[in-house]
Specification:
By secondary structure, the chain is α/β, with parallel strands linked by helices. It has nine helices and 13 strands.
Length: about 250
Amino acid sequence: MASLSSIVGYADRFLRIREVGDWDNALNGLQIENSGRVTKIGAAVDVSTRVLEAAAKQDVDLLIVHHGLFWPGLQPVTGILRRQLSVAFENNIALYSAHLPLDLHPQVGNNAQLAAALGLKSNQLFFEEKGQMIGLKACTSWLREELDRKLRKALGGPIKTFMFGPKKTGTIGIITGGAGSEIYKVARDGIDTFITGEAPHWAAVAADELGMNLLLGGHYTTEVFGVKALAAHLSKRFRIPWEFIDCPTGL
């Protein structure tokens, strides 16, 4: 058993929660407190009623998520929000959320973890967002088909590919989640092969125009890495068990 305050304090420092810029509705850090003790950590990409109920069934009393409770913005505590809070309060579940601080973390971050799963090395930071570099790029010469195979294996499922770039990659860029709409900005960084989670329809046309390989692994699937790695890290440090709560969105 560990104290909630000690885990939260460590996680805030480890992820640089107060230093990393983000959208206001991300509200990084502790979003709901519990009675103050933690016996089991849960990790999930998104908080939802279904995830909270699953956490309660698995005796989780600290839930770590990438997309927190307040993404819809300021709202009254009625309907869905009231239901979610009720489940958390009734089951003594604390909620901790980390968005961009988790995306860009060099050790447990989504981008770093996916790059490692692919076997990419000598990665460099690129793509500025909210005052910091959040993506990773690597100068790596792989056949497009080889990268396709590696990504499918790393994500454990199908991906969407738009192969309009070189048959052998030059510079691979990774920004997990929903960065497909930034394809033009990504191209200006010299990226010829771009891996992200999802993209709008027009991004496929843009990939053709730019002569770029675009690989979409799914928003959810590319962002399971960070919460898992963070939960495992905290579990080892504080000697408490953890469990991943899988609730895919299909996107």
